[in-house]
Amino acid sequence: MTLSPDQQAQLMAAIRQAERDTSGEIRVHLEEQCPDGDPVKRAIAVFKHLGMHQTKEQNGVLFYVAYGDRKFAVVGDTGIDAKVPAGFWDGTKSLMRQHFAANDLVTGLSLGVEQAGQQLKQYFPCAPDDVNELPDDISFG
């Protein structure tokens, strides 16, 4: 399953919108198969590979999807994980799962990104000297 250019643009727009009022960083990574079968373990490896652990405030969030295996994970860095309410990521994943079940990957990801952006904005508001530390594009495995 590949995303059309319009779908990619829609997702990147959701990322830019979610990051607009926060110093937090959001990335989306898509691949067909989850190499070791464990989406959380794979998401953590991709998180490091993308350099997301190097953000100044440790407030990166990765949305990982292995669409062929129908597996996904949402991983937040230590800074954001320490601040969001217990069960927050589970609620975000439930919302996404509803759209994934209807084969609407883009809407599910966009809504998940939006929810992460709201939390990031609350706990990591944008500073006047904020710089976009990571690209807003989608990475593919």
Automatic annotation (TrEMBL):
Domain TPM residue range list: 2-118
InterPro entries recorded: TPM_dom
One Pfam entry name: TPM_phosphatase
The protein's name in its UniProt record: TPM domain-containing protein
The organism of origin for this protein: Fibrella aestuarina BUZ 2
Taxon lineage: Bacteria, Pseudomonadati, Bacteroidota, Cytophagia, Cytophagales
